[in-house]
Structures are given as structure tokens and as C-alpha cells.
Write a structure and sequence with these properties.
The structure is a homodimer.
Chain A: H1 10-17, H2 21-29, H3 36-49, H4 55-62, E1 67-73, H5 77-92, E2 96-102, H6 108-117, E3 122-126, H7 132-139, E4 144-147, E5 157-161, H8 163-176, E6 182-185, H9 193-206, E7 212-214, H10 220-231, E8 237-240, H11 243-255, E9 265-270, E10 283-286, H12 289-304, E11 312-315, E12 318-320
Parallel strand pairs in A: 1-2, 1-3, 3-4, 4-5, 5-11, 6-7, 6-8, 8-9, 9-10
Antiparallel strand pairs in A: 10-12
Helix pairs in contact in A: 1-2, 1-3, 5-12, 8-9, 10-11
The structure holds a DNA duplex.
DNA sequence: CATGTCTTCTAGATCGTTCTAGTTTGACCA
DNA sequence: TGGTCAAACTAGAACGATCTAGAAGACATG
């Protein structure tokens, strides 16, 4: 293998094109102040040499990287969907995205440090678990946008989905199908779990129904465990914290010969890609990942560019009805 | 919101401690050449000011970023598992990882550019789809390691799993359980699909059995489609291209009332996290994501640091037997 | 012809580090 | 006392870009 090539610099391009470094800089940035003919010549030289601007040097001098830092959790498929959408929106706004995963042995704080180290001008954190103080501290250095969590203090922007409306939609939908015994399998320690649980309780009471909460979590296993608990006293409908949990519940029921939606209706949350799969066909509350991602990227870019805009954005989710929810079975009334 | 703070610099710390910038640099890097007493004084001053080294400037000067670029596909859960493991290995080696996703509207070339822009010293690409020439071109600038694909030319290192051995294990396992009618649902256009398909054919013939290939893909939907095709003339065992496809096949069979493993055994590939879920319990060929990731990171770091080592590493996969494979049903012999 | 005004281009400072090549300090020894 | 040597410290040049201020040339105007 031959020796690695040194990366060409502005100086190299300048020499090749017979102009000064400054002019090459002007051309590369697309700034005004270069004659069209020289511009072409410089661009030609740059592409001949395979020149690419060194973002570190650029940042050092200009404090602009056009880089958005996005922290996500590698184990959540829904986060992956947001990541995809964020790329699209960022590139439309002329920014790049740099990712950092929160994984098993890699805490959120570490992920954020990495993002700042590579020069992210703003931070977008999906479902941050850091304390409000901690987030505020970072916000003194760069704009911070929290996605899917809204209690983040006054210094951090948030883009979230209206959990209240989402759960209300879920309960209304099931009630309108004649269900009265509707159980909620919660998200355990997950970020919006408390909010959804309490909203579920309030909504049930508003409908004159008895709320029943079973503890769950964010994964299929949690859903399965909850499903087992439920078998003892089967409700007619279940609202799960998210789609993965819903899947677990369904698997458990299926294994026990309980028909979905014949015996029990199951409603998920997130409308993940796999909810759409033909063999799953899960009814779910959609938070619309592309819209959320676009809003978060928009907020981050606005902040960077000094455009004033509201501190927090709340999007209203909507219901996607597929094949796991149906009319309540007859004669199976409450209590 | 208050104005963003200016970050303190080496100069600020130097003034506060009454020493030169260079000495502060020495202390902050933990380099030898500073008296213990001054070292303490400088560290004190630095922490008083809340000083954090500006990595952009540092890296610009030292031409070391200690950054590994990792390109992965956001829609593949197996890639996410590799990403997790790569983080762990990189940090053990004293490197950081910067990610770039290949998503719908974001081609691999774009992902790689981003990685180079932020200063990655080496590229690790999971299942690259770029041409050998294209990869070689990047390899002239930085070391490139291909993960899960081994035909990448002489200038690019590769770390892959031995598909030959993997499929052989799969076929042997099923044959040893008495299966004779074993079908392969292939991966369509996926990176190692051709190799696995041909190996399957060869292995079947070696065992004196008739190979049957059904076209599939990398997702659950592909598996489902293949499952439908298979129902017409049911085999006793199916080897799927990956776990997601296997899941699709199983769902299709289950819906048709076909018992797994009572009527048909199903074997996946990848041993993804969800294969381990209690309600899936999929037997699968494990490529061992942590080991693959560690090997890839190791190769990249070795290259960066000039340690000579073999150009390609091939790991042998192993079989994880769970509950979707069992003895072939009696009286259901071949053809 | 002097002056003013564009446009196009360039020299040199600068960002916050690290690196190189010293210089100073002080301990030790003949 | 003076010489040697290592340890402690420093000045100033990098790194590769951007930015500021101004020079050079073309052209119009009075």
C-alpha cells in the first residue's frame, strides 16, 4: 500500500490556479468578489487536486461549521426514523448533521461532549435524560433543542409531541368503539412515561371509567411481562407506552390464544416503521417522526442564525388505525 | 436568554497562573516538563476558569483527531449493534467515534464526505456498496476498513464474517436434525447475498440434497413474500438471509397455521437482539457483532498508528440454537 | 489629467492550540 | 569558584482556514 497522500490545502489550490489563498477562500465559500473566469479556474484546480476544506481550521477562524449535533439512542428504532428525517431537513437548510449515539456503556454526557468536540453549532438531543441544570449549562455554550421531552427549563428549546392529546386520542378512539375496560401499560422510567400515565388516568376518569395501570417499559420484553399480568383479569383494550411494548403484549396474548382484536384491542404509540408491516398492522398514535425532526432542525438552525422564534414547539399527534383495534366484544362490560 | 459565553483559552489560564501558554499546554496534556507545584497551580487556575481545551485548535495543530469515522445504515438493527460495540472498543483504544448514517436520501458517498470533513483519521464502513475503485480512492487519503464485505480490493482492509462457514453450519445443523428439504430464502441485492446463496447450493449438493432458492431480501416484508411462495410446496426447513427476513417467514407460516418448529424449522442469520427476545427465540447464525466491531476498530487504529497487520480478517460465525429449529417431522422425506 | 468609484485581487493578522528550539535556573561536582 | 547538566520554563513559528484593510487596474467624469 502506497504512502497516504497529504490532504491538499488552500495554499496548494492557490498555487495551482496562480492566485492568492484569500481568493481561493472566497471562491470556495461562494462569497462575492471574484471574477467569473477566475472562479472557474479556481474551482477547476480545486477539483483536480481533490481539495476539501478542513472544517477544523475553518471553524477555528470563523466559528462556523454548519454542523448540527444529534444525540440519539441506538437501541430505539423510533430514534432511527427521526435521524433519517433530520438528515433531509438539515441538508435542505444547508447544514450537515453529526451523530452521536447513547449506547450501553456510553452515557449521554459523553455523547454530547463528542458532538461539541467535532464542532457542532447546536445540539439536538432526542429524549434527553440529563437534568435541567445540566442541559442549561450546555445551553450557555450552544443552542440546545430537546426532542420528545418538554420540561427542560427556560434555556433549552423543546420540540415535542402533545402527549396529552395523543393519549386523549387513544382513549377516545377505544371508548368510541365501545370499550370500557381499557388498561394502560406504562413506560416505566422512560422520559414521557409519567405524563402519559397521568393523562391516561385523567382521561379515563373524564369518561367515567376506572383507570388501571400496569407497569411496563420501552421494550418487547416489558410488554410481554405486562401481558402476563393482564391475563389474570383480561381487559377489552390495552394502550401501550410504545409500539415495541405493544408488540410484546400482543405476542403474549397470541401465545395464550387470545384473539386480537377479537378479544382484546391493542393500541401502540409512535407509529414506528414496524407498526406498518403487513403482519403487524398495529393501530398506533403517530408522532410523525419527519415533522418532529424537521421542527427540531428548524429550531436549531433558527437559533444559530439568531432568528427569534418560540422556545418550544408542540405538535399534535394523530391516530393511525390499522387492524389491532376493533369494536369491544359484546357482553364484556366493566368491573 | 443570556449571551453565549466566550470560552476561556489557554492564554486566559496562562495569565491567571502567571506562566506561559506553552507551559499550560504541557500541563493540560499531562506531558512531562512541568514542576509539580506549578502543575497544581495551573490546574487550579484552569478549573477556576472552567477551561476546556478547544479540540478544533488542538487537532488543527497536532494533526491528530483520534477520531474514527463509522458509516452505517440507519435502517439495519444489526448495524446498530455493531455501532454500540464499536464505541466500547474505540474508547478502550483511546479513540472517539463519529457516526454518519446512510439513509433514504443520503447516499454512502455523502456519508463518507461528512466523516472526512470532521477529521476522521480512518473510515470504517459497514457493508459498503461503493465500487472497489471508489473505495480505493478514499483509501489514498485515510485507511479504510470494510465491515461485512470482503471483496474490496487490495487497498482497503476488510473485517468480515465467514459466510461460507456460516451457511455450512446452518445446513449441517438442519441435516443433522434429519431435514432433507431445506430451502434458502436469499437476500436479494444485499451485499453478501450472492455468496451465501452459492454456498448454500454447494453445501446442499455436498450433502446429496436438492437446493431450492426462493428470492427474498433484507426486511420482514421480503420474508413474508417468500413465505407465501413456500406454502404451495412446504419444505421442512428454511434458512433465511437474515433474522428480519426469518421473522417475516415465521409470521407468514404462523398466520397459515403452520407450526414452528413442529412442521417447519426456521433458521435466521445475524443473531440480532430481537432473535433473543423470549417470544421470538429464533435459532440463528451469530456473526458476533461485538467481535466484528472490535476487529474493525482494531484494524483501523493499527493502520493509523502504522502497525502492520494482515489486510483482511475473517471471523468464523457460530450457531445459536434456540426454539425455531427441531428434528424434522417424520415421514416427510424428500422429493 | 487628476479624481473618484468599481471590481478584483492580495498581504498579513488572526483563531487557540502544539511544536521546536531555545534560555534560564539551580543542583552538583571537581 | 566555575563548569556541566538536567529540569523547568518560554518565545515564536507552525497548523489551515477566514477576515480586514488596502493595492492595482479599469473606466467614467469633470
Amino acid at each position: 500500500m502506497s504512502e497516504l497522500q497529504r490532504r491538499p490545502t488552500l495554499m496548494d489550490v492557490a498555487e495551482a490556479a496562480g492566485v492568492s489563498r484569500a481568493l481561493v477562500s472566497i471562491v470556495m465559500r461562494g462569497a462575492p468578489g471574484a471574477a467569473e473566469s477566475t472562479r472557474q479556474r479556481v474551482l477547476q484546480a480545486a477539483s483536480d487536486l481533490g481539495y476539501r476544506a478542513d472544517s477544523r481550521a475553518r471553524l477555528l477562524r470563523s466559528s462556523r461549521t454548519k454542523l448540527l449535533g444529534l444525540a440519539f439512542s441506538s437501541s430505539q428504532p423510533f430514534h432511527a426514523e427521526i435521524v433519517d428525517a433530520a438528515y433531509a431537513e438539515a441538508s435542505a437548510r444547508g447544514y450537515e448533521i453529526t451523530l452521536s449515539a447513547v449506547a450501553g456503556g456510553r452515557p449521554e454526557a459523553r455523547a454530547i461532549e463528542t458532538l461539541l468536540d467535532v464542532g457542532a453549532e447546536a445540539l439536538i438531543i432526542i429524549a434527553p435524560t440529563l437534568s435541567v441544570d445540566n442541559l442549561a449549562q450546555h445551553a450557555r455554550q450552544v443552542p440546545v433543542v430537546s426532542l420528545l421531552r418538554d420540561d427542560v427549563g427556560e434555556y433549552v428549546d423543546s420540540v415535542s409531541s402533545d402527549d396529552y392529546a395523543g393519549i386523549a386520542l387513544a382513549v377516545d378512539h377505544l371508548v368510541s368503539l365501545g370499550h370500557r375496560r381499557i388498561v394502560h401499560v406504562d413506560g416505566g422510567t422512560a422520559v414521557s412515561s409519567d405524563k402519559r400515565r397521568e393523562t391516561y388516568r385523567a382521561e379515563m376518569i373524564r369518561h367515567g371509567l376506572q383507570p388501571v395501570v400496569v407497569s411496563g417499559g420501552t421494550g418487547e420484553e416489558d410488554g410481554m411481562r405486562a401481558g402476563h399480568t393482564l391475563q389474570a383479569d383480561l381487559p377489552t383494550a390495552v394502550i401501550a407506552f410504545n409500539d415495541r411494548s405493544a408488540l410484546g403484549v400482543m405476542e403474549c396474548f397470541r401465545a395464550a390464544g387470545i384473539g386480537i382484536p377479537a378479544d382484546v384491542s391493542v393500541l401502540g404509540y409512535d407509529d414506528s416503521n414496524f407498526a406498518k408491516l403487513s403482519y403487524v398492522q398495529l393501530s398506533s398514535v403517530s408522532q410523525d417522526a419527519p415533522l418532529l425532526a424537521a421542527a427540531a432542525v428548524g429550531r436549531a438552525v433558527d437559533r444559530i442564525e439568531g432568528v427569534s422564534s418560540p422556545g418550544s414547539v408542540v405538535r399534535t399527534p394523530h391516530l393511525v388505525i390499522r387492524k389491532t383495534t376493533a369494536r369491544a366484544p359484546e357482553g364484556n362490560s366493566d368491573t
